[in-house]
Specification:
single chain, alpha+beta, 4 strands
Length: 225
Amino acid sequence: MLDNSTLQFLRDLKKNNSREWFAENRSRYDQARSQVEELVEFLLKEVGQIEDLANTKVKDCIFRIHRDIRFSKNKDPYKGHLAAAIGPGGRNSGRIDYYIHIEPDGESFLGGGMWAPTPEQLAKFRQEVDYNVQELNNIIELPEFKAYFPEIWGETLKTTPKGYPKDHPEIELLKRKQMFFMHKYSDQEVTSATFPQELVAGIRILKPYIDFLNYIFFDEPSEDQ
């Protein structure tokens, strides 16, 4: 579904990040986006067997290539990658989803997790770690999970979070401000015929962690219910 023309377009865009160049190469972008759309359509069908994606459209999932430069010192008008969010409602659902990132030179990846939690969500995460860390550990310590997602990404507090003792047995998890997992793919993997199926396999491995977060953030009944 994805071939070298998409990766080469993104390489060239990084070197020529201007509206003039983009306009001259619009047909190359359209071809690259079409390949990503085809990939997303496949993922919606396959992941739809394990997630409720019935009302999610391809256009709901793909992120714009244009950058928001209003408050940025970097005034490049375009991103150097193509990306999509696979989940109920697509990129604007508000829930935790599966993020597909296509970028040349080994920077493509599948990712998902706690990246920009609200203060309320972070408090729920820490409460869950404090009360029932075993449920989380049963997911992220599973050999298959650790083999595919060996590293935790994201920021961590330098000090102990308020309300928890310094000697808490799960203090390293409690310090986390972000807890995101990702698996990178080489350019050869991205352009292989089996890449779509590989993404589905990765999503299946990541799903229990995504379900865990969506439950404690959005679906868990409050104490007064």
